[in-house]
Design a protein that fits this description.
12 helices, ABC transporter involved in vitamin B12 uptake, BtuC, mainly alpha
């Protein structure tokens, strides 16, 4: 049996690893609810991670680094919104090409400005009263401020999509854009902020990844977390609270690689198995979530001449 310290470390690490995936999944939930399949969130995460590391290294300010990481995602979102919504490009092809572009751009900028340097990182944040809860306090008091901000964002995204007029209209644009347009609403104006906000959250996930690790950047450091987030959205059925639970499971599956060597039962398993486990789990989870249904108009570029098919 693993010791209590190992179990606490396992859950604390898993929750920390959950944060970047969850932020990207929350952003993708907003985007897909409005009718845009944003495959480019992996690229936005990379851009946000690089911007965070670069500003952190130059300024030694955690706050500025996180803010610039988020802002870089907003800029990426403006570009992708123009392509997805205004130009009506194929969303899957555009997203994949944007990911390739982001990987190349961040790699070049890393070699030029960041290579070998590290910046500040987030410290654990103790929340009053939580530390007094047996076992749970030991896990949660090891988390940083971005973890708690992310939990707040879960609630805010749910409220935005289910308790505001904009959320209602955006969901209508994702299900029945022709009816939405006939009702006097502009589908493009609804989808623009959805895509921009989605990429801002994804980039903030990349920023969280940098600030929760060594404070530096290496090319490809997101390691497919954006694609895992795409699977999380489907498994969670576009519900922010279910996305939280699903992301936690994927975070815990990633955490196994750090504690497996300390558990006799898992010690003999090759390390590569634990590295691959989150991605295998993503594929299996999507295959098993057969009841999930995408919003009816997701992935279909909106043009008034296609209104009869949307």
């Amino acid at each position: 049996m693993p010791s209590e310290a190992i179990i606490i470390a396992f859950f604390a690490t898993g929750l920390q690893l959950m944060v970047p995936i969850l932020l990207a999944a929350l952003g993708e939930t907003i985007s897909e609810r409005s009718g845009v399949l944003n495959v480019g969130i992996e690229g936005s995460m990379l851009i946000g991670a690089l911007a965070t590391a670069l500003v952190g290294i130059e300024t030694e300010s955690v706050t500025l680094a996180l803010a610039f990481g988020w802002f870089a995602g907003i800029c990426a979102g403006v570009v992708l919104a123009f392509l997805y919504v205004n130009r009506g490009t194929d969303q899957i092809v555009t997203g994949l090409l944007f990911n390739v572009f982001a990987f190349g751009l961040t790699g070049v900028l890393h070699d030029r400005f960041v290579g070998g340097k590290i910046g500040p990182t987030l410290s654990p944040l103790d929340i009053p009263l939580i530390g007094d809860i047996p076992k749970v306090g030991d896990v949660l008091n090891g988390q940083n401020s971005v973890f708690w901000i992310t939990l707040a964002i879960v609630v805010l995204v749910f409220y935005l999509m289910h308790r505001t007029w904009w959320g209602l209209y955006a969901r209508a644009a994702g299900e029945r854009p022709h009816a939405t347009e006939s009702g006097g609403l502009d589908v493009q104006r609804l989808r623009y902020p959805a895509v921009i906000l989605a990429n801002g959250l994804a980039a903030f996930g990349g920023a969280a990844l940098v600030m929760s690790s060594a404070g530096g950047f290496v090319p490809g450091m997101t390691e497919g977390r954006g694609f895992i987030a795409l699977g999380v959205v489907v498994v969670a059925r576009w519900n922010p609270f279910l996305a939280l639970a699903t992301s936690a499971l994927f975070g815990l599956s990633q955490a196994l690689q750090f504690i497996a060597g300390q558990v006799d039962l898992l010690d003999g398993v090759p390390h590569q198995v634990w590295l691959a486990l989150p991605y295998v789990a993503t594929v299996l989870a999507v295959l098993l979530s057969r009841g999930s249904r995408y919003p009816a108009a997701v992935g279909i570029p909106w043009r008034r001449e296609t209104a009869g098919r949307a």
